[in-house]
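Handout for the seminar on molecular recognition.
Each group receives one record of this type.
Step one: identify the two inputs.
Step two: read the structure output and locate the region that could contact NAP.
Step three: write two sentences on what you found, then compare them with the reference statements printed after the record.
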Amino acid sequence: MPQNQLIEIAYFAAAVLFILGLKLLSSPRTARGGMHLAELGMTIAIAGTLLDHHIITYTWIVVGAAVGAVAGVIIAVWTPMTAMPQRTALSHAFGAAAAALVGISHYYSEGAHLPSGTMVALGIEVMLGSLTFTGSMVAFAKLQGWLPGAPITYKGQNVFNLLLMLGIATATVWVIVNPHASPLFYTMVGLALAFGVLFVIPIGAADMPVVIALLNSYAGLAGAATGFALDNKILVIAGTLDGASGLILSIIMCKAMNRPITNVLFGAFGKPPEAGADSAVKGSVRSISTEQAGELLAGSESVVVVPGYGMAVSQAQHAVKELADVLAERSIDVKYAVHPVAGRMPGHMNVLLAEAGVPYDQLYDMDHINDDFQRADVAIVIGANDVVNPAARNNKASPIYGMPILNADQAKSVLVLKRSMAPGFAGIENELFTMPNCMMVFGDAKKTISEFSAALKQKAKAA
Ligand code: NAP
């Protein structure tokens, strides 16, 4: 069979596997299988690409693949689940940098002679690749705590960003029309790199998930443009799938955060909190022991568990499942309320709870559980903070105002498990903690939950 035909078949198989993989990724039940299909697709796509007769020598390809594979395995094995968002941001940065570098070297070697169609793709590839690279690096630094998580803003920021965007667009169009204008090409690269930084620094706190999804989309589009520039079909397909799914995820996250997508696209959110947003929450906090909490749980008929980032930090998911089993033995109804931005990455809580063997039919998303809180005897808030903060409903000055939250405060009693009074990701205080129906149980979530289970088992034995 001719080599070209083999490559086409490999690319076709890879494309089908990518699409099936994405489809399966849309449910926690089938997500693992989806990952494996996508991995197989990528292996076939790489193998097909390596058959290309344009390849002169395999030496540097082998060296690059080896270095990349070792780095990939190290990052995958040693990154804790809690650092997944940073890792994702870093992956977007690497992908985008690769697209930009391929485009720059392509321009450097053939720039003046490239046909205008290729030049359009190359211009978009380099522009998107450059701004996604620096934008993702800033997102990484924010999530890793190397840069302040809060929005960094200055006067006239949006106007400046808009002018910069116009400058980049003008330079890109100019270079496409006049491929000889190499100084302008490199100026465009510099401006796009700067724009990536300036576009992400004003976005902070609770809005980070949206920007990560958006950068994912940009990295995919940069990849697709690379495919057009290099006339590589699988890059076009994979990049488009990535770009489209990233955009859909951005829209879903925007809906979850109650932010219009246009605000995100133009980087117009992340305003500094208005005066009064930081005002300390008034009222006193009631703290109870794990035995007292056990008593409360023993007397309940329905419990809603609200997992948050702290559950991931403490790796409490198995203890949570065990507690749910102990409650079920007492015929207590247990449901899990999962907020779309709980934790630090989309689906974070679903992944952890699935890992612990929590049945999927006990997991409810926000829209399907929020009315149940008022009928619940106890809401157990496990390391969640921002996603149950009533300031999102009540305090117009709060940076999270308008974000839909889980109505944990409406349960008859609320048990909040955390180690201290420290705020969550958005850095703001939570008036839930001072509400009359709320009781804090301080300590590491895993230890606290295990003690709840022990207290309930003890009670059952004594009965
Ligand atoms: P959160 O608001 O960040 O609060 C987590 C809470 O967990 C903290 O208040 C912390 O309090 C507690 N905690 C930490 N370690 C703990 C441990 N070992 N045991 C017990 N408690 C522990 O979490 P969230 O309610 O899940 O909200 C998620 C936030 O992250 C939102 O603002 C969201 O926008 C943002 N975000 C989400 C994503 C995403 O894609 N899901 C991505 C980036 C950012 P103590 O320190 O006092 O224990």
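Reference statements: Residues 171 and 188 are 6 Å apart (CA to CA). The first strand starts at residue 302 and ends at 307.
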